[in-house]
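Before going further, learn to read the protein records used in this course. Taken together, the tokens spell out the fold as the letters spell out the chain. A record is reproduced here so that you can trace the correspondence yourselves:

***
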Amino acid sequence: MHQSGNGDGRRVGTGGPGNGTDHTNHPEFLALERELTVLLRRARANQAEMAREVHPDLESSAYGLLVRLGELGGQRATELAAFIGVGKATMSRQLRALEELGLVAREPDPGDGRAWLVTLTQEGHDRVRRVREARRARYAGRLADWNPREVSELARLLHELNRGMEK
């Protein structure tokens, strides 16, 4: 069984369901739930703000699509829908709105002439880059009194949390 410290010197087992140990009422999991709730609420509000900064008419949920396209380049609509967790109709509607705003374009998939790839336009790329740079600057400002090793450790732990949530 994997064990982790809880900050007070005790060791707490972190086994999963079915191991006979219920951790749901342990203070560390209550604190985790509380802090994640605050973080997620702020993240949703920030996403809406960033979407408006990219374009005043951009839906909050579409911001993640733009970031994904900026990071990975051209994607099929089905890949984007799977990543975001929406259906084909919702994805088509969002992509149509992004095209109308001039932020994305569709181009033939060089690997499959029957399919299309969605890509950021230069305007979309520039707007997303500016917003992400401004966001990183805000993080740097808010965490200016943190040691860079602490920031790195936070990023590492959040990465581990995200990987664990994918299982």
